[in-house]
Write a structure and sequence with these properties.
218 residues; alpha+beta; L-amino peptidase D-ALA esterase/amidase; 8-stranded mixed sheet; 3 helices
Length: 218
């Protein structure tokens, strides 16, 4: 299956590079909401990088520029960026590709009454950062719908096999699709786009979760 973006990793950066300009929706640190570009970058940081008083957006932009990645849509993580996972899915002529880094020390569980409760205070914050891409342009509403499908698939992967964490307080999801071309107006779970997003995100998140859990002391 032909990749929708190319991935490269050289600490402290994990980079997804598209061949053409994309519309991207999500809550990235430096360009939240709707944005456009052909680069998405993860920056690996440590607590020492972010002492009290440091502006995380300014730090991210400075590091991106210093690495020749100015203009990239950026996310930050304490996770070793080499521990990233890619998954692809295809259905009815549609494709999706997901790239995930995952740590759960900053996670929350949901009780039977729907109340969120944090897990034990972490020594290092964890987060789930995700990029999921489609080859078909979507309109604004369909992009919002696609992000909701990605969030559903992520949480399902976290809850599988007795998992209790539903997410972390610093998670980020980015949805990318081509900027040019006729735009589809639906991307729900009954569409080929929604099914591909669900499968790719679930597979990448499950793999990332499994690796993270193997690394944790019992």
């Amino acid at each position: 299956m032909e990749p929708l973006f190319e991935t490269s990793c050289a600490q402290p950066f994990l980079v997804a590079r598209f061949a053409a300009r994309q519309r991207i929706l999500g809550w990235s640190l430096n360009r939240p909401g709707f944005a456009a570009g052909d680069l998405v970058a993860w920056l690996e940081v440590r607590d020492a990088d972010l002492p009290i008083g440091v502006d995380p957006v300014a730090l991210l932009e400075e590091r991106l520029a210093g690495a020749g990645l100015a203009g990239a849509i950026g996310m930050m993580t304490a996770r070793d960026v080499r521990r990233h996972h890619v998954a692809r899915a295809e259905a009815d002529g549609m494709r999706a590709q997901a790239l995930v880094t995952l740590g759960l020390t900053n996670g929350s569980v949901l009780d039977a009454e729907g109340r969120l409760r944090d897990v034990a205070p972490p020594e290092r914050a964890g987060t789930i950062n995700m990029l999921v891409a489609l080859p078909a342009p979507l309109d604004d509403g369909a992009m919002v719908e696609a992000v909701s499908v990605a969030a559903m698939a992520r949480s399902a992967a976290l809850l599988a096999d007795g998992g209790r964490i539903v997410g972390t307080g610093t998670d980020c999801i980015l949805l990318a699709c081509p900027a040019d071309g006729a735009r589809q107006n639906h991307a729900g779970i009954h569409t080929p786009a929604g099914r591909c997003i669900t499968e790719a995100v679930h597979a990448a998140t499950r793999a990332a979760r499994a690796e993270w859990e193997r690394e944790q002391p019992r």
